[in-house]
Amino acid sequence: MSTSATMSAPPPWQRDPLALRRLTLTVTLLVLLWPLLVLCEFRPWELLEPRSLRATGRFLVQFLTPRLDAEFLVMVAGDTWRTVAMASAGLALAWIIAIPMALLGTARLSVSALTGRMGTWPAALRFVVRAVLVILRSVPELVWALMLVRVIGLGPGAGVLAIALTYGGMLGKVYAEILESADGAPTRALLRNGAGRLQAFFFGTLPGCADELVSYTVYRWECAIRTSVVLGFVGAGGLGQQLDNANKMLAGNEVITLLLVFVALVAAADRVSAWLRPSRRGQEEGEGGRKRPAPRLGLWVLLLALTAMFVASFATLPMHWGEWLSWQAFQQMGTFLAEFFPPQWAPDFLQRVGQGALETLAMSALGSLLAAVAGLALALVASRPSGLLRIGARMGLNALRSVPELVWASLLLISAGLGPMPGTLALALHTTGVLGRLMAEALENAPPANALALRWAGASRWQVFLYATLPQAAPQLLSYTLYRWENNIRAATVLGVVGAGGLGQMLTVHLGLFQMRETGTVVLAMLLLVMVVDACSYAARRQLNR
Question: Where are the transmembrane segments (predicted)?
Answer without folding.
Answer: 84-106, 142-165, 223-243, 255-276, 297-317, 361-382, 495-514, 520-540
